[in-house]
Amino acid sequence: MNNAFELHPQLAADCFELGQFPLCRLLLMNESRYPWFILVPQRPELTEIHQLADDDQRRLIQESSVLARALERVFKADKLNIAAIGNVVPQLHLHHIARYRHDAAWPAPVWGKFQPLPYTDDARMQVADALTAALPPSFISFEKQ
């Protein structure tokens, strides 16, 4: 078994790495229609939440909740969609998507609805900075290192 964590190549291609919590890497999906973030537990070769050790399961829920509260404060969404799907990318990851009644896919899921609309550099920085400013000190931003 490989003990080194590596981000799945599809996640690396589709996302920007923003930083990390004690357990999870935080990614921003390069789809500007929605504030769409992904938590990836930095544990190798896991595909399901129940495969995490008990302490890591609790930590994942804590980090997901911290992220969700920050998303509510910053993006004022009508609904947060939080899901661990993994049909395309088997590596364990949790999507956190701020949804609005007026967004392009509402009320349907966002997966596969449209070709992604990439962020401009300025828009990406604005979204990333707004969110990371709302996160606690346990989050380490890669931008600020």
Automatic annotation (TrEMBL):
Stretches assigned to the HIT domain: 38-106
InterPro entries membership: HIT-like, HIT-like_sf, HIT_Hint
Upper taxonomic lineage: Bacteria, Pseudomonadati, Pseudomonadota, Gammaproteobacteria, Methylococcales
Record PROSITE patterns: HIT_2
MF (Gene Ontology): catalytic activity
Protein name: HIT domain-containing protein
